Amino acid sequence: MDIHSTEFYVMAFGVAIALVALLFGQRDRGAAATRIVALNLEPDEADQAPSLSLHMLADGLHIERRGLSLPADDTVNLVATIIDDKVHVAEKRGVVGRGEVVTLCGKATIPLNGKERWHVRYESEVTGQWCLIAIKAREGAQAYTEMKY
Fold this sequence. Notes:
Elements: H1 6-24, E1 33-43, E2 51-57, E3 60-71, E4 76-83, E5 86-93, E6 101-110, E7 117-124, E8 130-136, E9 142-146
């Protein structure tokens, strides 16, 4: 095969495409795990902006969601999808109440283990708010952020 032939350039182009695909191709991701946890709601005494506090415990990630405006008899569930070191948490409304709208504080613990750091994306389908936050996966670690629209 001659270096100036069309076949050579076609093969060289094919090899170049294969190398680029290997270098920039999608990496293998771990299997996804989904956890559904009830958000325990209670009246929020402090009148503060909607926020999210994370606390690492021995048995998982404790979430404290403040400034949640809902009818007092509503229920909210957290659906956590875990892939590698990323956690996507979605707040989903369960039972829709018809009572007076009050400011609530919600608490839940999502079972997690085995990583050095967790990157959390928290979205509220109930209020349309969201946030991004990272926390070290060591017992006692804490993180805080305000929710965005």
